[in-house]
Every structure is written in C-alpha cells, then in structure tokens.
Design goal:
Blueprint (H helix, E strand, L loop, with lengths): L7 H13 L3 E2 L7 H9 L12 E3 L2 E9 L6 E5 L3 E2 L3 H8 L1 E2 L5 E7 L9 E5 L5 E6 L4 E6 H7 L2 E12 L2 E15 L1 H9 L4 E8 L5 E3 L3 E4 L8 E6 L2
Parallel strand pairs: 3-11
Antiparallel strand pairs: 1-12, 2-3, 4-15, 5-10, 6-7, 7-13, 8-9, 9-10, 11-12, 12-16, 13-14, 13-15
Length: 235
C-alpha cells in the first residue's frame, strides 16, 4: 500500500503487517522517532497543523504512539496556538538559561494555578478559549478549543516495545486501540483536576533560531479511555 489506510479493515491489515515485521529501526534519533517511524510505515505525511492524520470510514482520526512501559505523560494534543508573542519573544521575555547555557522555556502549566515561572492556564467564561496567562497580566498564547476538539474527536493509540542497539532505537508495534467520540465534559474535568497539562518545550539555538518541540497537551495514558465514548481493539 502506497497511501494511508482509509477504512478500519485496511488499518487492521496494515498494523498487522507492521507488527509482523518485528523490531523496526527508528527513522529519527529522538523521542518523536516512535511516531515518525510508524507514520512512515503507514504512509502518513507528518504534520503538527490543524489537520488530522487519518480518515477512516469517513471519520477523522488522530494517531498517537507510545513506548510500552513508559510512565511519562502522553502528548495527546500538539497544536500551536494564536500567539501574542512569537516563540523567540516569549523565551526572551520570560525564559531562563538552561543547563546547557541556552535561553529556554521548558515548563508545565496547569489550569488556575501559577507555576514557579509565573504561568497558568485560563479558561474563558464561555468555555471556548484556553489561554496561557502570565502573572504580569499578559495573555501570551491562546487556543480555540473547538479546533482542538475537532482534531481529536477520534484517537488511534498504538503501543510498541522499544530496544536500543548501539546508538539506534528499534520499535516493535504490538497493540492499537481506536477511541471514538471525544467527551468534552471529561476534557474540561481533567483540565480542572490538573490531570491534563500544557508543556512548553523551547530553547534558542546558538544561531538565535528557535527549537520548539511542540506545545503539548499531556496526560497519563490511563485516562485516555475515559475521554472517549467508545473504544475498539484494532491490533
């Protein structure tokens, strides 16, 4: 198959094919290698935009992958916001010097409570917008929540075993579950309970250019099934 699967049956066949290959060498040497390698196997073009990864039986589906046994939060949403300050301006105004001597801004932000760097998430009264607010009164970035909801209405989660060999990492994709029909009230509940957080992951390179690993909405994977009305085992 030279294009992404378009039906659930095609997806099952493709994931079974990928599983049967055993460990596959990562095509990228960083934490995003697991997702990038899977997307390449499924012939999906990488994107961090407002578009979905797959269309299955006419429904838009976002694809996420995770290493089996990893206890870290999962990045379920990676969507850049509307920005009053661009990345470089934000780092220069509110950042710090990291352990490698670079201007950086790598912080976790939760709803309603300022973190040590002076940031919190703010929810508009109508529940339509989520913003990053600084203690100085600035609303520096904001998301239209409807855009997030549309992008993550349906989610395909794929889990893989990982192993290292020399300086390379390999993945064996073993399990996949399709979650459908996002429960928006649960999304808001997890925000309020601080189970769903926003991570900023940026620094300046020596050239002055910004390295932004994506502004991630992150949550423990155990909460994912609670966010959706239905789930089905694909692999």
């Amino acid at each position: 198959m030279s294009e992404p699967p378009h039906t659930k049956n095609e997806l099952k066949e493709e994931l079974q094919r990928i599983k049967s290959k055993g460990f596959i060498k990562s095509l990228r040497k960083n934490n995003t290698g697991i997702g990038f390698t899977l997307e390449e196997e499924l012939h999906i073009r990488e994107n961090n935009l407002k578009v979905h990864d797959l269309t299955l039986d006419g429904e838009n589906v976002e694809l996420k992958s995770k290493r089996i046994g990893s206890g870290s939060r999962l990045t379920v949403f990676t969507l850049e916001p509307h920005k009053e300050l661009n990345d470089k301006e934000l780092i220069q105004k509110y950042g710090y010097v990291d352990s490698e001597g670079r201007p950086a801004l790598k912080v976790t932000i939760t709803l309603g409570e300022y973190n040590p760097k002076g940031f919190k998430l703010g929810l508009s009264e109508d529940g339509r917008n989520l913003s990053i607010v600084h203690r100085d009164g600035s609303s520096v970035w904001a998301w239209d929540l409807e855009t997030l909801f549309v992008k993550f209405e349906n989610l395909l989660m794929v889990f893989a075993k990982a192993k290292k060999a020399g300086d390379a990492e390999y993945f064996h994709y073993l399990e996949a579950t399709l979650y459908e029909n996002l429960k928006r009230e649960v999304f808001f509940g997890f925000l309020q309970e601080k189970k769903l957080v926003v991570d900023l992951r940026m620094h300046l390179k020596p050239t002055g250019a910004v390295r932004n690993r994506g502004t991630g909405f992150r949550i423990n994977p155990k909460y994912i099934p609670l966010c959706y009305a239905s789930e089905s085992k694909i692999l």
